[in-house]
Amino acid sequence: MAGLQREVGDTVGGYRVLGRLGAGGSGSVYRVVDGEGREAALKLVDAKDDEVAAARLDREVRALQSLRHPAVPHILDAELEDDETFVVFQFVAGETLFDYIQAHGPMPAPELADFAERTASALEAVHAAGVIHRDVTPSNVMVGPDGPVLIDFGLAHRAEDNRLTREGLVSGTPGYVAPEVIDGAEPGPQADRWSWAATVAYAMTAQAPFGSGTGAISRTLEADVRLPDVPGAAALRAALGRDLSMRPGMRDVVAALRGATEVMPTGLPATAVAPVGLAAGAWGETAATTVLPSGEQSLPGGPPRDDATGWPGAPEEQDPVDDSDPPLEDETPAPPKRRMLLTLAAIAIVAAAPVAPVMAYLVTVAVAILARGVYRRSLAIEAARARRGQRRTSDTVVQTIGLPWHTLRAAAETLPAALTAGALGGGAATGAWWLVSSGTITSSTATSQYYGHAAALALGGLVAVIVMAYGPFMSGTREGAHRLAAALSPTAGLRAAWVLIAMVAILVAGIAIYVQLEPWWWPLPDLPPASA
Predict the structure, then answer these.
(1) Residue 370, CB half-sphere, CA atoms under 13 Å: how many?
(2) 270 vs 252: CA distance, rounded Å
């Protein structure tokens, strides 16, 4: 990247640098002025020593030079063969969507629908020209006086750029990279459309729909997105799903945002959109359209289409080009899942059951109550924000102070599952204990009896843990458990520490069983030795 650094006053291909607008894995973008005093945006790209990137850059620049769309900046100039490889775009005044939403809050419904329609139209025009954007995010949409404009096309990449993988380094913007790309697929139009839906969701809520950082990757793969109950939210949730065949098209989402369609009930493909007084159109997606008196079709609130292939004036779609991904950026975080930590905690409880069965059960119930309290706190914060708006720090403080009250309510709500877990877990342990004692499933030797009884208690612990996790009214408790685990392990170092603690606990329980330590029944009276 050193070769892409320019200072104010430097010249690049006859353009004088006024300042730096941004940088990424594929190059640096500068605000420049030409010899006649006209401002522009110049992207200095890193394709000099990469023949593949250079060829792709040449192809994409030529495709975009012929494209004219009000929401796509025009390419004014390009130098693709000299030592300095650059592309000059029309300068777009305004602020990024990210900054705009941070300053003004979520877009109201009419403005959001207009924003979604204009950016979707721009994106499909780009696809029809044979170009994939590869980084549709709130930071790559400018909001100006004439409406939103899609910027910063990833026109080149370096051969050494890392691919986005589930285990390794992430190249791209977590939370705005489609799940199929995370799984290793080449970015294509569908991936751009998914990123567009995530960007629209950000404009709707003022929050990154999947959070940020590595946690956003797991939530993307789980399609774990929350949106308010407003027109278009169901269509956006479907558009952000993992299954490509179940995603509604951008037309469907725009129509839903205008209140003209709604997603069909569960069990039908998400692409099946129920028109409200509309007839279905065609465009490679299930498009919801009105039927005009003349027989023409249009989006609700939009101009008539001049054909059945796309947005007004869109050229015929061509084969897209493939490419790699741009760099990371962080936005509003959201609580990540902590499945590994919770699984290890459950294993530790099951391992402890042969050593201290009653205490293992009581700890399970206590953790469930605390997790339920955390869940109720999150519900209270969401309700307060729904009444008074987003980002109210006072709501978080008030509900945290009220955590004891939430925990008290959680104890009452956890009681049915706790009683069920105690009955089923105790019943399973008692039945297995009797089978061992009677010699039905093991021999009568002291060692066999001890390990048989230990296995019986472990079985009871396993049943109790499963019931506490999936018993009556426990779905909120599971969510609260993830939130609690995330709060206790906000960094990779703390996560590693908790993993180590859980593994040590499991090891200690295993050693206690190996040396045939008798179970500790407190607070119940001690039973006869397990090997007796």
Answers:
(1) 13
(2) 10
Give the pLDDT of residue 160.
40
How many domains does the chain fold into?
Answer: 3
Beta-carbon contacts of residue 431 (< 8 Å; ≥ 6 apart): 456
In a domain, 526, yes or no: no
pLDDT of residue 154: 64
The answer as to whether 310 is a domain residue is no
Neighbours of 433 (CB within 10 A): 19
Tell me how far apart the alpha carbons of residues 250 and 193 are, in angstroms, rounded to a whole number. 7
Residues in contact with 19: Cβ distance below 8 Å, sequence separation at least 6, in sequence order: 8, 30, 31
Count the Cβ atoms, other than its own, within 10 Å of residue 203: 22
- Assigned token pair, 341: 């930590």
Q: Per-residue b/e over 440-471, b at no fewer than 16 CB within 10 Å?
A: eebeeeeeebbbbbbbbbbbbbbbbbebbbeb
Residues 114 and 149 in one domain: yes
The verdict on 260 and 147 lying in the same domain is yes
Q: What are phi and psi of 106, to 5 degrees?
A: -60, 145
Structure tokens at 83: 């030592």
Residue with tokens 């407003």: 230
- Say whether both 129 and 179 belong to one domain: yes
Task: Report whether 228 contacts 386 (CB < 8 A).
Answer: yes
256 and 214 belong to one structural domain = yes
Give dist(CA 167, CA 164) in Å, integer. Answer: 9
One domain for residues 225 and 110 = yes
CB count within 10 Å of CB 300 equals: 21
Q: Are 273 and 292 within one domain?
A: yes
User: Would you report the helix, strand and coil content of the chain in percent, each value rounded to 5?
Assistant: 45, 15, 40
pLDDT at 337: 74
Tell me, rounded to whole angstroms, the distance of Cα 360 from its chain centroid.
35
- Is 523 inside any structural domain? no
Handedness of CA 452, 457, 462, 464 (dihedral sign): positive
**Which of these, 22, 14, 258, 281, lies nearest to 137 by C-alpha position?**
22
> What is the span of the domain harbouring residue 210?
95-298
Positions of the chain with pLDDT lower than 50, given as ranges: 1-2, 156-170, 264-334, 386, 388-396, 398-399, 531-532
Same domain? For 142 and 272 the reply is yes
Please tell me whether residues 139 and 263 are part of one structural domain. Answer: yes
Amino acid 196: pLDDT: 97
Element (H, E) at 288: strand 286-291
Q: What residue type is 25 in one-letter code?
A: G
What is the pTM for the complete model shown?
0.51
**Which positions ≥6 away from 16 have C-beta within 8 Å?**
9, 10, 32, 33, 34
